[in-house]
Design goal:
- The protein contains 7 helices and 9 strands.
- The protein is α+β, with helices and mostly antiparallel strands.
Length: about 200
């Protein structure tokens, strides 16, 4: 971690992309904290695209076609939903400078959302950063059971088809490990990252 930015500081877009290219990403202590700090974990969460596991129960939900899946139709809505307080999580690391920075990345084609809609309502989704052949997952949310999980499955399918080779999850959780997420040591991860950002893959 490095020194946080001063209150109200806007994260420069070029700096943010350079940070991702070097294995670093920003976070905040809470939504109300105006400061941002940089994180370079000792171990990094990665979901191998060729070893992604879809639980049987989730595969059944997908076959039922319960949700309408969209790409980038409401990026702002997804990041706002990811920042909401909800049961089991009363704070978030998505503050004003982070929200502004990723919205700018979205406008120039480096940040994307995968969304689950039902009856015209946004009920789940995720967003992340696209750089070279790497996709960096940032956050996800669900307002209905399995909505974000279905989005994750759709994301992996899209990354595979479009030539991506790295899906970064920052950290692993028990939830992500169900899908095959692994903890990768920093030195190994940075070699994977260096190879991934050399190529080009179009997310949208």
């Amino acid at each position: 971690m490095t020194r946080p930015y001063a209150p109200g500081y806007s994260i420069p877009t070029d700096l943010l992309l350079k940070a991702y290219a070097s294995g670093v990403f920003p976070m905040a202590e809470s939504a109300s904290d105006p400061e941002v700090f940089w994180v370079r974990p000792e171990t990094r969460g990665v979901i191998p695209l060729d070893a992604f596991h879809v639980p049987h129960s989730l595969a059944k939900v997908i076959r039922q076609g319960r949700f309408e899946l969209r790409i980038d139709s409401d990026f702002a809505g997804v990041i706002d939903a990811c920042a909401e307080r909800r049961s089991g999580r009363m704070s978030t690391w998505i503050n004003g400078p982070i929200r502004e920075a990723y919205t700018r990345l979205h406008r120039i084609g480096h940040a994307h959302s995968v969304e689950a809609w039902r009856d015209g309502q946004l009920v789940g989704g995720l967003y992340g950063v696209s750089l070279g052949r790497a996709f960096f997952g940032e956050s996800m949310f669900s307002r209905e059971t399995d909505a974000s999980k279905v989005c994750l499955v759709h994301l992996v399918e899209r990354l595979r088809v479009r030539g991506f080779v790295l899906l970064d999850t920052q950290f692993t959780t028990d939830h992500l490990k169900r899908f095959g997420a692994l903890d990768v040591p920093r030195d190994k991860y940075e070699k994977m990252l260096a190879a991934a950002i050399k190529g080009n893959a179009a997310f949208a």
